[in-house]
Amino acid sequence: MRFLLLTFGCKSNQYESQFLRESLVSRGLEEVETALLADVLIVNTCAVTGRAGSTCRSAIRRSLRENPQLQLMLTGCAVEVEEEWLAAFPQALREGNARKPFIPDRLLGKSGETPAASVKAGVTGLKNHTRVFLKIQDGCDQHCAYCLIPRARGEPSSRDPDDLVREAAVLAGNGYPEIVLTGINIGFYRFQAVGLASLLDRLAPCIGSTRLRLGSVEPAAVTEELLLAIKRHPAVCHHLHIPLQSGDPRILQAMRRRYSPEEFLEKVALSREILDHPAITSDVIVGFPGEDGDAFQNTREVCRQAAFSRLHVFHYSRRPGTPAADLPTTTPTDVISKWKRLLLLQAARQAEQYAASQTGREERVVAEVSGSRTDRYLLADIEPLPRPGAILRTRITGSRGARVTGVVIPDQKQ
Ligand code: SF4
């Protein structure tokens, strides 16, 4: 049987698709790159925004037009929360997120009750990627008002650190220069007595020269204990992605976020106090119901004070079944689009200032096909051009916009 695997959404979905890929191939199935060559189309869907859902739908329709004989297997978050559009594919087999390990069995016409053997072993790499993802945790119980992930992914669960240490060693052994710790809410990783800080203490010694990067960490999880653990291990990048979402206290409350703008800025300040010139990146939602001009200005001001090195700005997307879904959106779309542009302009200036501040520093970079990336998540133009997959110490010589330029520090094996 030949399969085409389409993956949408977050790093956790990418990781789970890789796990699925390896399980299917180990069961004798062959992966192909086009619908025409495939017998079965597996779609690992995303439902985080309305647009994510429509992107999945059009990809499925395109494949079915290309090959109407295709068997269809749908999995991922849309299977958990998007009943209305799934009905458009009545012929499709479906498996929710927790049942992904059972898909190989199901496709092979077996009971579908035997999970793929290697759940604990995890993955051995990531197709077409230089940096690899290691899923350490799943689920979330924070129930932010705009977010349907708790419904799609369920209660928080953390993987056994012994399994993670084994898997990380395999990934480093397979030559991956960077491992990104991912999950739905990794800041709240907890397996018995092992939290995220002590997990870093377990992982860092067993990955050789491979570096570790943390995925998104909620503000509440940015603690002195975690920051000191990052500082303790040269393997760990001094880069934190801490979602702000809004800088206005009234909107944060309406979003059911669990911090004030002041508390958020304190976490940023603490990170800068303990870490070495860290990159702090973030996410903001504009247009959340009830956001007016004053609230937007508060967000703009908090972003200015936080001086993020990179900021993602999202237009609020109403998600059915979330607490905010029934709140009236009062602000016209063109105003929200203007706010988004203003925030991105400010963020671009601050990204350039951060890149410029790197000049003269020694910085570790990982070379990828698409360009090198520093520990502090900056794209870097390095001379001489390193081979993809190399991990090197460099001297930053300058910046171009939000990118940095640098030279390889001599006497290093590529
Ligand atoms: S913390 Fe909030 S935004 Fe993040 S996954 Fe959980 S509910 Fe969604």
Explain how this protein is built.
The protein has 414 residues and is α/β, with parallel strands linked by helices. It folds into three domains: 106 residues, Methylthiotransferase, N-terminal domain (Rossmann fold); 226 residues, tm_1862 like domain (pyruvate-formate lyase- activating enzyme), CATH 3.80.30; 47 residues, no CATH class. 34% of the residues lie in helices and 23% in strands. The protein contains 13 helices and 20 strands. It has a five-stranded parallel sheet, sandwiched between helices. It has a five-stranded mixed beta barrel with strand order 16-17-18-20-19. Strand 19 and strand 20 form a beta hairpin. The longest helix is centred in the last third of the chain and has 24 residues. The radius of gyration is 22 Å and the shape is globular. The two termini are 40 Å apart. The mean pLDDT is 95. The structure holds iron/sulfur cluster. The site of iron/sulfur cluster has 10 residues, from helix 6.
Briefly characterize the structure.
By secondary structure, the chain is α/β, with parallel strands linked by helices.
CATH topology of the largest domain: pyruvate-formate lyase- activating enzyme
User: Which geometry do the CA atoms define?
Assistant: globular
Radius of gyration: 22 Å
Unreliable segments of 5+ consecutive residues: none
Structural classification = alpha/beta
Instruction: Write down the CATH class of the largest domain.
Output: Alpha Beta
Fraction in helix: 25-40%
Number of domains: 3
Strand order of the biggest β-sheet: 2-1-3-4-5
Number of strands: 20
